Amino acid sequence: MTKNTLFFTATLALFAIGCSGDDEGKTTGDTGTVTDGDDDDDDTTIPNMFDDATLGGGVVCSGATVSFAFDFLGEAAEGMLDAADSSNNNNWNDYHTLAASGFTDDGGYTELAADGVAVGVAVGDWADGTGTVFTCTDHYDDAAVMTYIARAYDLNAALADCVAWGQDTTGMIAGDYFNYNPAIADGEFAGCRTASAAK
Length: 199
Known about the structure:
Elements: H1 3-19, E1 26-28, E2 33-35, E3 44-45, E4 49-50, E5 59-62, E6 65-73, E7 78-85, E8 93-103, E9 110-118, H2 136-140, E10 146-153, E11 159-166, H3 169-174, E12 193-194
Parallel strand pairs: 11-12
Antiparallel strand pairs: 1-2, 2-3, 4-6, 5-6, 6-9, 7-8, 7-10, 8-9, 10-11
């Protein structure tokens, strides 16, 4: 065999190996197209972003605690929620880590949540995921007072989505309300989008 024939044969063999195999559960593209591998052309596109429809209802304050729970359309490892009283002279801001509670059966979304955070604690008692200075009546239940930024991180710890909603999204993204607790990785806000329909 000549060198050219050997090279062509080896290239053809590598191509055949690369094209064989099972496509079960393959994920392709930035939007996370999931193919079941059963050749029924039933692909599911997962956009890798927060479900904006769940943002407003994802802040639930009841008496002594507040809980945050947001649907992320895709697979996320963790999230972060920044909250600020953007209406009362930069009154306060804090943040809470959002834990991933798992994926739906079809892998369509991940719930990112922080449950049972104590409200109305003293400034010195504020803590990520444990307590907040804000109260239900004066803050969380009043859409004209609070502004939020939620971020989600994918399974490789890369920022997957950043969304702002509430009283002053422009000011929140610009960092106007971080006078007490500096935002973690605030450089990520540059690409943050807004969800005006959320509370």
